[in-house]
Structures are given as structure tokens and as C-alpha cells.
Amino acid sequence: MTQDEINEVLNRPLSQEMLARDITRLAYVAKDGTPRSIPIGFHWNGSTIVLCTPTNAPKLHALRQNPTVALTIDTEVHPPKILLIRGQVELDTVDGIPDEYMEMSGTYTMTPEQRAEWEVGVRALYESMVRVVVTPTWAKMIDFETTLPSPVEELMRKQAERQRA
Fold first, then answer.
1. What's residue 129's pLDDT?
2. Comparing C-alpha atoms, which of 15, 32, 133 is closest to residue 72?
3. What is the rounded distance in angstroms from the CA atom of residue 149 to the CA atom of residue 151?
4. Closest CA to 27 of 141, 144, 102, 134
5. Which letter does DSSP use for residue 57 in this model?
6. What phi-psi label fits residue 17: left (phi over 0), alpha (psi between -120 and 50 degrees) or beta?
7. Residues of the chain above pLDDT 70, percent
8. Residue-wise pLDDT tens digits, 44-83
9. How far apart are CA 165 and CA 142, in angstroms?
């Protein structure tokens, strides 16, 4: 998939809506060779997806060994809206709390007092964190209205060809 094709998918209004959500599911291969899929907060900065994690997170060793990941951002309604992204990660250890970590938690409903208390707790807990920066190498938006999973699109195309014949 070319960068222009990736950008076209990610710049669609529905994709932008999905990229404004709080949680993605990160899929990667663990150090024991088995797959993992974990929910994790994220921040979209317009070109990359930034995940933040403690410096002792088990996924970091796995991501150093194999930086290829997949992300799923979806809704909980019918029909679901699903943004699928594949990419490569770069790991960046930072002192203190990354700005993206503070921003990714911004859509949770908190009173100003709760937010202030949460920030104090976060800053006291982490001396440093790792920014897991995902650069998309492939993307697909599935809305079940204008786009479908690839196997379903293929079946529908074959059915249409048979009907024309």
C-alpha cells in the first residue's frame, strides 16, 4: 500500500472519528512467539499513532525483537465501524510523562478535580515512560455500508460478475 493510499484511508471523516477514540487493540508477537492483542490508550498526531507504556512493560522486549504490529480501533454498535492499521514501531524512552499520554486520556469523563488528582497520581508513579510510535504501513476502514471486509467484497464482486454473465 502506498503512503498516498494510507493517507486517503486515514484522512476520511470516519477514520478521523475513529482516530479520536480512546482505546485501540495492539496486536504483536510476544517474546515466546505467541500472539498478543491488548487494549491500550493511544494518541493520533496526524501521521503516527503514539502509545505510551511503563519502561518495564513485557511488550517492549517483544517489540524490540519484532517491531511489526497491527491496531484495531472499533465501535460497540451495529453495524460496527472498524479501522484496521498495520505498522512498524519505534521505541522512545522519555523522562517523565510524554505529552501524548496526558492527551490520550483527555476524552474520559472526569471533573476538573478528578483530572487534577489523576495527573498528580500519574506524575508520581512514572519517572519515565516509553513512547511506542506506530508508523502506518497499511490501513483499511470498514463501515459495512461503503466498505466491507476484503473476503466479503471479493464474494460480492464474483456474485456481480456471475449475474452479468
1. 96
2. 15
3. 6
4. 134
5. -
6. alpha
7. 98
8. 999 999 999 999 999 999 999 999 999 999 998 899 999 9
9. 29
Record the pTM. Answer: 0.87
Q: How far is CA 141 from CA 48, 73, 121, in A?
A: 16, 10, 36
Amino acid (one-letter) located at 118: W
Report H helices in the chain. 3-10, 13-19, 58-65, 99-104, 112-125, 150-164
Report the Cα–Cα distance between both ends of the chain, in Å, rounded. Answer: 31
Q: How distant is the alpha carbon of residue 128 from its chain centre?
A: 22
Mean pLDDT throughout 82-95?
A: 97
**Residue from 50, 35, 19 nearest 133 by CA:** 50
Q: Mapping DSSP to helix (H, G, I), strand (E, B) and coil, where does residue 145 land? A: coil
